[in-house]
Amino acid sequence: MTTTGEDRATAPAGPWWWARWRGAVLDGSLALVSALECGAEGVPFARDAGIPAAVGVVFGVLAGSVLLVRRRWPIAVVLVAIAITPAQMGFLLATVGLYTLAACEVPRRVIAALAGMSLLGTMIVTFVQVRQDMDRGDLTLGNWFVPFAAVSASLGLTAPPLLLGLYVGARRRLMESLRERADSLERELQLLAERAEERAEWARNEERTRIAREMHDVVAHRVSLMVVHAAALQAVARKDPEKAVRNAALVGDMGRQALTELREMLGVLRSSEGQVPVQVRGRAGRAAVPLAAVGVAAAAAASRAAGGGGEGPCLSELDELVGQSVAAGVAVDLSVEGEVRPYAAEVEQTAYRVVQEALTNVHKHAAGARTYVRLAHRSSEIAMQVENEPPPEPASASAAGLPSGGNGLVGMRERVVALGGVFVSGPTDAGGFRVSAVIPAS
Questions:
Q1: Range of the domain at 382
Q2: How far are the Cα atoms of 111, 229, 335, 369, 412 from residue 390, in angstroms, in the given order?
Q3: 165 in a domain, yes or no?
Q4: 28 lies in a domain?
Q5: In the record, which residues are listed under signal peptide (predicted)?
Q6: Which residues make Cβ contacts (< 8 Å) with residue 145, sequence separation at least 6?
């Protein structure tokens, strides 16, 4: 079972150079067994060498104990094993040392050189030992058995631990590579989750802005007219009762239309609450991405509510829009140039909204000012311009008490630019205000 980098960082550390206590206990046990083996083999070595047996035992125990540092200095362990090969001791030391050397991050040429030295040393010692046994008569086989025994013994003691160590080392490096890839993927997933959360927040803000813009365009115009008619009703209530009745009827109609439009928009938003946001889950976290269709549906519903039909407002309804402003007491002249033709729904809706918002601003800031609405149908684009003269009474601009959120011009610009058009607005030299927009026809 493998662990990721985070798990390894929290794993308990062992003493000295050991990564874990389990490794320290294993190496200590192997060193103890190797010391006992070499100590027992030190007795015949001391007898053959003509030295005290205690010296041979101590020498064997010290040599076998070198196995304790096999993870830290594997080359030194193998060199010690090669050095004591003529003394015919260190079987476990040589086997474990070669395995550790092959499994460690040691250059292959160093492994090959030390393995060759161990193989050669074992072969020579075995050859000499078998030859001596045959000379003493302990073995009665032919001369062919001497090289066969030497080669077999050297290969048997060298090849298995060497090959096993190479395999374990390769597998260990592969697992480490897989762990690094897993850590990298985990970091990438975390980064993707953070970016998804940022995109989700951006999408939510965009949808809120879009819905607010649609509601502003749909409701602000009619409510502005209602306020203008209410002010006129207050002014003529005693002087001209018949006109007051007409203004009251217009206020009622405008209010009912505004309520109907609000009800339709809120109904669509309420029905969109059942659509659960899309959630991206991963090891690093969770990011919620709202369905863009919710905001699009609300925007479309707002457009349908404004036009009263299924496709939203269109340029053919400009006469009615201008008529409402005229009924509110604003002198509006509408002129159309070029050949009238149908456009894409979003183009007609945007053109209608620009004119609608410009007229709403006239009601808010220049009540009673003469206004000119120009619409030009060109070969590859449609242009519109709404320009008003200075208001006859500067104080009348705010007489009706119409609030201004400052988002009308921003909304118009966003609509036009989104379709690849150009939007310009600003005061005129005569003291009025002009709004111009050009939208590509396709």
A1: 315-442
A2: 96, 21, 20, 6, 22
A3: yes
A4: yes
A5: none
A6: 130, 134, 139
